[in-house]
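As a warm-up, study this chain.
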Amino acid sequence: MRAETPGPARPEISVVIPFYNEAECAGPQIEALYPVLRSLGRSFEILAVDDGSTDRTLEVLKAEKARHPELRVVRLAANSGQSAATAAGFAAARGALVFVMDGDLQADPADIPPMLARLEQGDCDAVCGWRQRRQDGWLRRASGRIANGVRNRVSGDRVIDTGCPLKLFRAEFLRRIPVFRGMHRFLPTLVRMEGARVAEMPVRHRPRPAGRSKYGVWNRVWAGSADLLGVRWLRSRHIRCHAEEI
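Now compare it with the structure written out below.
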């Protein structure tokens, strides 16, 4: 992993976006974020994490970086998966508040301001979106509902739509969670284990305009099942301890 030249020091908000072979979506995704983030009146940075893409994604991101000083590009030397790319973005993020979203243009940046407003009500440490009208085929929607129900039952957690890519966290909780393959599927559960209060709110979901999903139904079933059992074990053995020297 290599981070390119850093942007402004310690922005208030970081937005982490993993990209893998999204050359057609990467530029429009970055451009769509800028007017929304600037409207907040706060300092921000965008962490674009290239997960070893084999197309022109990295080239597109570098071109965007030349135009936007708030954009930082992190490159993984080889394709390592969405969890690794997400964790790399979290590790590089400098904001006290961290958004995470996918790079396929299906999440709407217009949902960022209301999610921020929800967090700042003061009764939660994370806000996770749930897709009101999911713009995917019926098979993906059906498999997602089944997987979400099984995940909640086995993990002992309650999350409306854990597959929704748009989420907001106080950065302090992200620094405490374990990093493992499949981590990105369980972020609400993992931060809850560290004491975070998690709220959920409806967000928009848009059709994918270009490229194709990197996940099929069956590869998500097998990988997700193994991850789920691991998270169940982790919850049963987890220790949360805060100590101070006196």
